Amino acid sequence: MFLDRVKILVRAGAGGDGAATFRREAHVPRGGPDGGDGGRGGSIYLRVDPGQTTLRDFQFRHHFKATPGGRGEGSRKHGKSGDDLVLEVPPGTAVYDDESGEIIADLVARGQEAMIARGGRGGLGNKHFATSTHQAPRHAQKGEPGEERWIRLELRLIADVGLVGLPNAGKSTLLAALTAATPKIADYPFTTLEPNLGVMDLGMEDGRLPTIADVPGLIEGASEGAGLGHAFLRHVERTRILVHIVDGGARDPEWDYEVIRSELAAHDPALLEKPILVVINKLDLPSAADAWPSFRARREAEGMPIVAIAAATGEGMDPLRGALAAMLPSEAELAEPPEPSGVVIHRIEGMGDAFSIDRDADGVLRVRGRRVERIANQTNFDVEESAERFQRDLVRLGVDAELRRAGVAPGDLVRFGDLELEWEPEAWAIDG
Ligand SMILES: Nc1nc2c(ncn2[C@@H]2O[C@H](COP(=O)(O)OP(=O)(O)OP(=O)(O)O)[C@@H](O)[C@H]2O)c(=O)[nH]1
Ligand SMILES: [Mg+2]
Questions:
Q1: In this structure, which of 254, 295, 322, 417 has its CB flanked by the most CB atoms within 10 Å?
Q2: Within this chain, do residues 379 and 423 fall inside the same structural domain, yes or no?
Q3: Which residue has the higher pLDDT, 30 or 191?
Q4: Is the pLDDT confidence value at 167 over 80?
Q5: What does the mean pLDDT of the chain come to?
Q6: pLDDT digits over 114-127, tens only?
Q7: Which residue's CA is the closest to the ligand 1 atom numbered 23?
Q8: DSSP E strands: which ranges in 83-167?
Q9: 146 lines ligand 1 (CB under 6 A)
Q10: Is there an atom of ligand 1 within 6 Å of 186 CB?
Q11: 93 ligand 1 Cβ < 6 A
């Protein structure tokens, strides 16, 4: 089954812990601090691979993890960085944060990429914490956790021309006649189950190479979910022009024509604002030849461009190419991805000292703030010196004063991210 919507869990690598080690020298029982820094954790990226047309790679795998950074070691040895993980997606993949629904990136162009989970920073080794008055610090930072979140990917194919029509109208046959694509063609409805893309040659003098998308047939009610059509209407949203193909041999080509137009309008009225070329197909059939004059007269009266073809025999391909060539934008414009294009939203990571204090549902005080949570995450509370240092940071950032104002009492729990600490006026103690 065609996959154009998936939810995945991405987990970047944690940063490695910084080391708390001391130099060993022959005559010095305990040298200065020489703990190296932890390596940064691997991040996770999405990158556009123009060769893909579905999100199939994500059908069976939903969890992705990048590797953590290595721990720092003695002799100022830094931990090695975690490997980044790059996942490839087809052009036209919109990326959302599943929880907030916020768009993170809209990946349309070849090679475009976006970071979707940032690796944690490595912790600093104890050598960074030596001062003139404190020459043998046991404090080293822990690595920062890697970012983790659920991401939703939604594909809207990027093609210049979208083929729309009822099942069996001959869309795939036309794609095969115009491009090197080899879609499945058969005499029953819903032969095409996932979009096919092809690149079209407009003619000798024309340097433009528009892409054409053949999508599964639409039926009456498609905009409300009937048939396969609904999911695929999304894929013609981004095309520059539509080719509306009607089976001229059908019982009532006029009715066929109207059904598709009303489904397009019901899905999104803007679809009918696009340039649309109407194509009547199967002109080799006598019934189609009979229907053609009145069908043509009606379209011309409406001001719609129209051509007649027999996709199976190749008849009428030159006029069709000519009509498309006249409707498509210039070469320079074609090279630009169609609107809405290339939105990559870079998150601005303000470090900010700002924090807030509120109570969780169970009444426990919670401190929120980018910097304070980061410091808490990177503190190794097993080392007394590190715990004390954290406490001083809380005083320095004004968190301690604010907690007192909020009525904190000795022994009360206070939460920072996943951590739960016990507040004491003198010293904080880690809980559990
Ligand atoms: N006689 C005749 N038959 C044609 C012509 N074009 C397509 N057909 C036939 O019509 C049938 C359907 O063609 P497809 O190209 O598979 O139609 P489709 O619109 O892609 O159909 P779905 O994928 O089901 O939506 C096939 O049996 C084709 O051989 C034509 O010009 N003349
Ligand atoms: Mg088809």
A1: 295
A2: yes
A3: 191
A4: yes
A5: 86
A6: 899 999 999 999 99
A7: 192
A8: 85-89, 93-97, 103-107, 113-117, 148-155, 161-164
A9: no
A10: yes
A11: no
175, 164 in Cβ contact below 8 A?
no
Evaluate whether 213 touches 161 at the Cβ level (below 8 Å).
Answer: yes
Which range of 19-33, 42-56, 208-222, 301-315 scores highest in mean pLDDT? It is 301-315
Using DSSP's 3-state secondary structure scheme, residue 399 falls into: helix
Contact 338, 346 (CB under 8 A): no
Q: With a 6 A CB cut-off, is 36 part of the ligand 1 pocket?
A: no
Does 18 share its domain with 144? yes
Q: Which atom of ligand 1 is nearest to the CA of 185?
A: 16
User: Is residue 346 very low, low, confident or very high in pLDDT (cuts 50, 70, 90)?
Assistant: very low
Kindly report the pTM of this predicted structure. 0.70
Measured over the CA atoms of residue 185, residue 188, residue 189 and residue 194, the dihedral's sign is: negative
Residue 100 sits at the vertex; the CA angle it makes with 59 and 66, to the nearest 5 degrees, is 50
Average pLDDT over residues 221-236: 72
Which tens digits make up the pLDDT trace of 254-271? 999 999 999 999 988 999
Mutate which of 2, 164, 172, 320 to test ligand 1's pocket (most atoms within 8 Å of Cβ)?
172
Residue 104 lies in a domain: yes
Contacts (Cβ under 8 Å, ≥6 apart) of 335? none
Q: Quick one: which atom of ligand 1 is closest to the CA of 192?
A: 23
CB atoms near residue 382 (< 10 Å):
8
Whether residue 346 is contained in a domain is answered as no
* Residue 372 and residue 234 share a domain: no
**pLDDT-based confidence at residue 337 (cuts at 50, 70, 90):** low
For residue 343, pLDDT over 60 is answered with no
How many domains is the chain built from?
3
Q: Give pLDDT tens digits for 86-116.
A: 999 988 898 999 988 888 888 887 778 889 9
Looking up residue 125, the CATH number of its domain turns out to be 2.70.210.12
Any idea what the CATH number is for the domain that residue 289 is in?
Answer: 3.40.50.300
> Given ligand 1 and candidates 168, 233, 236, which is best to mutate, with the most ligand atoms within 8 Å of its CB?
168
The encoded tokens of residue 185 equal: 């063609």
Three-state SS letters, 39-56 = CCCCCEEEEECCCCCCCH
Assigned token pair, 309: 């073809």
Q: Which domain holds residue 360?
A: 356-430
Rounded to the nearest angstrom, the distance between the alpha carbon of 170 and the centre of ligand 1 is: 3
